What does this fold into?
Amino acid sequence: MSEENSPGKPVRREDAAGPHAADGGRRAAEPPPVAKGLAFFLVGLVGIHFAATFLWNAPSSPVSESVAAEVNGYMRPFFVQNWSLFAPNPINAEDELLVRAQVRDPQTGDVEVTEWRNPTQLEWSLVHHNPAPSRASRLSSNLHRRLSSAWYDLTDEQQEIVADDYRDMADWRPLAGDLIDSQGGETSSEVANVVRADRVTTGYATQFAKAIWGRDVVAVQFELRRTPVPRWDERMEPEPQHPSHSTREFGWRPVLVDSEQDESAFARTVEGLQE
It folds into this structure.
């Protein structure tokens, strides 16, 4: 019988507990691998957040511009919360889009200018007493907001350019070219935004004009109107017959019909709103 297994020799505690007992229980206190991985993951998320916040607030640079779309999508998600949730800015004016057209007489060939019509007022009729109106009730209002925002970003000279007539242009390149020339030949996001908004609004105005005055429309014109609502301390006073308002004018544009537009459906909708 060996010395280690002799019955008279006491067995040491660390030998009985196994080879890891000498660590004093330190190995048992270490966090599991899952916890370590989760900690590294959370630290990485915090690092990405701080990096995105830094790029969002930092001055423009080649680095920030290269990831501008990704940073903008992260900092301004679809469901974004901002201070307006707690301090809302109430609507204090009525924003309306007005449309008129040049219509050719099929018998004489003469071109006449129609009166101004207000599609926004027609669309608002879909909202009255309707807690869940359709998107058709916001078409012209959305166009007004988009076009007005783009207009405000222009210089005074460029605002005069968009107020000129471009009735005979086949596309929107002449308008874009004049706007670019006015700023030294360099393109910009401001020019791109107003040209896109002008074209989309022209398409809407064309559909509305055809629904009102028929298929002999040869040109359309639109303007943006803003009418301030009465102040709170003036709410009980009689409503003025001709309230003051501001307008932003745009020149004549050629008719524009996109292939995916449904003129018949649009005309039926407008006809239903007029009833």
About this structure: The CA atoms of residues 96 and 199 lie 18 Å apart.
